[in-house]
């Protein structure tokens, strides 16, 4: 069963390796957060990576954290994951979670998967699969609008 809505963001510790800097829970709080699970062996994931980058540019007030979730023994090789991160210009923090430590904390089973947290670190939306990005748009706008209103 996936993480329930209104759950607090779990710790992002126990990672095999971080690329583009480590994302610590305490540093993320204060701004909305999007955690994106993906895998090097997932074709849909690779197709969506340019869209994730586009979102990162469109929503600078949103913090992005990628989590590479291996789906097979072959996915455990770190260098090909790093090469993919470079190739697709994923400049936000990327966790290589070879032991599924963070994956298990999120109770995540799917790639691609997106978990949207508000600025206080509370899960507001989750979506997975081929249409995950489209399903994310309205909840994302809602969370960002709430943040803008609170800032006024």
Automatic annotation (TrEMBL):
InterPro entries: AhpC/TSA, Thioredoxin-like_sf, Thioredoxin_domain, Thioredoxin_ResA/DsbE_sf. GO terms for molecular function: antioxidant activity; isomerase activity; oxidoreductase activity. Residues 3-145 form the Thioredoxin domain. Keywords: Disulfide bond, Isomerase. It comes from the Bacteria. This is Thiol-disulfide isomerase or thioredoxin. The keyword Isomerase applies. The keyword Isomerase applies. It comes from Seinonella peptonophila. It holds the Pfam family AhpC-TSA.
């Amino acid at each position: 069963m996936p993480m329930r809505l209104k759950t607090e963001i779990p710790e992002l510790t126990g990672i095999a390796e971080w690329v583009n800097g480590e994302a610590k829970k305490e540093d993320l709080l204060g701004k909305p957060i999007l955690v994106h699970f993906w895998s090097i062996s997932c074709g849909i994931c690779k197709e969506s990576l340019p869209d994730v980058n586009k979102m990162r540019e469109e929503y600078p007030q949103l913090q992005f954290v990628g989590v590479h979730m291996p789906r097979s023994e072959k996915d455990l090789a770190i260098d090909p994951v790093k090469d993919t991160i470079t190739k697709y210009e994923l400049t936000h923090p990327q966790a290589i979670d070879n032991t599924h430590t963070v994956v298990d904390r999120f109770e995540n089973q799917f790639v691609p998967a997106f978990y949207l947290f508000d600025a206080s670190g509370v899960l507001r939306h989750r979506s997975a699969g081929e249409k995950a990005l489209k399903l994310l748009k309205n909840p994302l706008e809602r969370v960002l609008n709430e943040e803008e209103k609170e800032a006024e």
